[in-house]
Amino acid sequence: MKIRLFLLQFVLFLVCFSSLSFAKIPPRFPSSSFVQPENLYFSLASKGNKLYETKYFTQILDHFNYNPDSYQTFQQRYLFNDKNWGGAKTNAPIFVYTGNEGDIEWFTQNTGFMFEIAPHFKALLVFIEHRFYGKSIPYGGDKEIAYSNTSTLGYLSSTQALADYATLIIDLKKNLTATDSPVVVFGGSYGGMLAAWFRLKYPHVTIGALASSAPILNFQNITSPYSFNNIITQDFRGESENCYKVIKGSWKKIEDMAKTTGGLKKLRKSFRICKNYISPDSLVNWLSTAFTYTAMTDYPTPSNFLNPLPAYPVKEMCKAIDDPKTGNDTFEKLYGAANIYYNYTGKATCLNLNDNSDPHGLGGWTWQACTEMVMPTNGNNKESIFPPSEWDYNERVRFCKLILDVKPRPDWITTEFGGHDIERVLKRFGSNIIFFNGLRDPWSGGGVLKDISKSIVAIIAKEGAHHVDLRWSSKEDPEWLREVRAREINIISKWISQYYQTKTDFSH
Amino acid sequence: MKIRLFLLQFVLFLVCFSSLSFAKIPPRFPSSSFVQPENLYFSLASKGNKLYETKYFTQILDHFNYNPDSYQTFQQRYLFNDKNWGGAKTNAPIFVYTGNEGDIEWFTQNTGFMFEIAPHFKALLVFIEHRFYGKSIPYGGDKEIAYSNTSTLGYLSSTQALADYATLIIDLKKNLTATDSPVVVFGGSYGGMLAAWFRLKYPHVTIGALASSAPILNFQNITSPYSFNNIITQDFRGESENCYKVIKGSWKKIEDMAKTTGGLKKLRKSFRICKNYISPDSLVNWLSTAFTYTAMTDYPTPSNFLNPLPAYPVKEMCKAIDDPKTGNDTFEKLYGAANIYYNYTGKATCLNLNDNSDPHGLGGWTWQACTEMVMPTNGNNKESIFPPSEWDYNERVRFCKLILDVKPRPDWITTEFGGHDIERVLKRFGSNIIFFNGLRDPWSGGGVLKDISKSIVAIIAKEGAHHVDLRWSSKEDPEWLREVRAREINIISKWISQYYQTKTDFSH
Predict the structure, then answer these.
(1) Residue A31: its pLDDT value, please?
(2) A351, B250, B372, B497: which sits with the fewest CB atoms below 10 Å from its CB?
(3) CA distance B77 to B64
(4) In degrees rounded to 5, what are phi and psi of residue A97?
């Protein structure tokens, strides 16, 4: 049952970088786009104004059972900014970010939207860290223990996380004597799924949710397992047919080259790989990772997710591939594309194929992907930019058994949160959810793309990528992005006005 | 940590029979009114037509965590009647009873309403037993193990029960290839709370809920702890001021008499108590139990809950008390009233003060009342028919520590399911719930008594008692009861029509 931490690091590597070969775990969510401190709007922090205070809440380990063990508690971190808050007396709103699978500071620093709209709404900002990530580690904060075996890791689940958020928010409001302040929840990616689910499950705690790039439908028998890679394909093919063809044709060329005498050495040289060792599989993973994450973070302005990227990086990659200077040299073309993702600053003298660092503490996602977050994304049809392959649930089962000694429950998420037939189910149930999706984001295929009711609405940006709306704004933002954010602000304003109105109605 | 079964039996006794003295656990729900086999409408069963088939489902012990232990399963019992079902091809509806804190056969046999409306709706009937009750015992069905300590009992919780129902229903529909059949859930008392919560938490599994006498608001800081006993007071006082005064005055008279030489013996004789032992406390508990449960089951036709009762038993009790033949003999008057509850058949030659049998397997309720179901009901104000007393949460804490070594979480239910400000919260969230309450039922004070929205509605019967609407109908039923049921049928019909209509809309 013991799982060594290094094994998790290994798994992390597999999860991040192996969408093509043996371990078909879905790509990790990129979760957020990191913005450099020199960003105009990030100057808040650099001017000595702290972006947030750090606080801790004593949280219950197991909300749903009453075993003696489950009465244990842990310290859950949350970040707090009340600079713009109108205060409890005016019932000024509270905006809560429902943290995802990593360090909450990272998400907070990259959710500029909430900081930028706080003054307008006189809102208190709270960013809650997801259990088992960052500094919110059960078992006395000892990650080695918390991640040591399936008994301890077992408490890492989405339902527990949602109950954490409910418990913390209710307690916080009580302590602030702000029980009548409306709460709006925000989240991107997995955090967006949590925000949407939170509104559905805890309507008594939040009046509405902005769920950005939340693929709540990316589960078995709802969304096609080809959807994810089809969108990546379309992103590149949309830039140029040649770009698509070069990438699509490259996999066989790499395989063929690897088989020749001195082929691996030649590949290593072509791609400026640092270490001596190279395998065609790892090269293929390394390249496909670059294409996948570049598609997800195909933002209209320069960004920095795992790596710094220019504006519209897919376009830049295709430019490199289509560059006439590289002639017919496929590897040189692909190197040019990969260099944009892995070395846009140009500082690296060689590229590291096996980077299994985890600066944002995302390692727990493997556990989640092996228990409940079984999101089929690895199918590749004939037209895919990647080699054809089928989503194979049993492969996931074998992988999870091997690595974590755990059995996935592929139907649990839809049992608990629904998903099937969602338009019918929510047409007359629930309210106040915005589902934002950028259609260039491969996860958008598993998102809610149509309005469900008058107040459960879809906002679509044809040119948008993964939760682009939540990023800090920039003078260079295109008009469509400004419009998306304006619509979101407008809708949230309506929720809040309606809340105050209803409050008044019932107190008369 | 070991809890001996006999201790639970003892607790059961305390819970049932001690609303006045030291252990202020709320009265158990009476849950259902038992109907004798000779009932006209019960003849279904007696004619050799089985009322239901018994089936079992392999259920997951812990839905919310992924610890190795929690991957255990247990056999969950459900009862099944498809005699009237229109079948999967026509997407005929499925009516599910969300079982409460006892043997599901008992609830099923007493939920005649579902059997009686099944032919009209061509509905499949399913009655699911609540985990840890009846034959749905985890740990291999061994109640001795399941109830042996807090580690095993820990899995007895309402959230787990709801997830059981979702899992079972989804699986059952799949097996019947009836995934498109609409599901309506029904429940009375705690089962009604579960039905309402199930609709709120699992709208993708059920299209609507009939929650009968479901005191979902009977929690701290929502409903007054005096409410419960105030209603009992009103029930008796409404019959006659004298009846109220005699009962109210009796407690001191019992106390005084007990203090005199030979007083206990005199009391024993007055009340025809079988055993030699008598204490004023146990006599007081015995009497107050009779008044409490008679108020709850103050049905318009003869019934049989724990004991057989005449129609309108409160009226009968007051008749006995007001009977001029008993003159000024308070004890004789009270004996006459108690005799209606404890010996209506007249078969008993003496009355048993300490009956701690548990024929319907309700013993797990103490655990639930000591963990999450902290429902304040024990307050008695000056006007109460019982001696004045305050609801004291700390008393519950001490009791639960002593008996079960467990600490209540008094805020959990409202954190998970809401309750505060319910009208505002559900005004624009959720749909399709009927809250039925009979205002003579002491639990009605914790029920939803006003329409919340167009489709979350309250049906009130001024003369109704605890989930009287779910009982088998009878030729003697008063007009108001017929009307209540007709309204319920009408509303459920609309839910189903709307479901079919929406289904069609989305498939076009």
Answers:
(1) 36
(2) B497
(3) 21
(4) -95, 125
Of the candidates B317, B290, B320, the residue with the CA atom closest to the CA atom of residue B305 = B290
3-state secondary structure at position A433: strand
Q: What residue type is assigned to position A163 of the chain?
A: A
Q: How many angstroms separate the CA of residue A429 from the nearest CA in chain B?
A: 4
Note which residues in 410-469 of chain A have CB less than 8 A from chain B. Answer: 411-412, 414-432, 455
Chain B residue with Cα closest to A151: B67
CA distance A384 to chain B (A): 29
For chain A positions 196-215, those within 8 Å of chain B (CB to CB) are: 200-205
Which residue among B158, B441, B467, B473 is the active-site one? B441
Contact assignment for A412 to B63 by CB distance below 8 Å: yes
User: A interface mutation test: which of B3, B164, B204 has the most A CBs within 10 A?
Assistant: B204
Distance (Å, rounded) from C-alpha A93 to C-alpha A341? 40
Buried b (16+ CB within 10 A) or exposed e, A444-459: bbbbbeeebeebbbeb
Could you tell me how far CA A437 lies from the centroid of its own chain?
Answer: 12
User: Which residue do the tokens 């006082």 mark?
Assistant: B237
pLDDT in tens, A204-255: 999 999 999 999 999 999 999 999 999 999 999 999 999 999 999 999 999 9
**A50-221+412-506 placed in CATH 3.40.50.1820:** yes
Question: Measured between alpha carbons, how far is residue A221 from residues A107, A445, B168, B450 in Å?
Answer: 31, 13, 19, 41
Cβ of A151 within 8 Å of Cβ of B419? The answer is: no
Closest Cα in chain B to A368: B66
Residue (of B100, B216, B415) closest to A63 by Cα position: B415
Known catalytic residue at B189: yes
At position A57, the amino acid (one-letter code) is: F
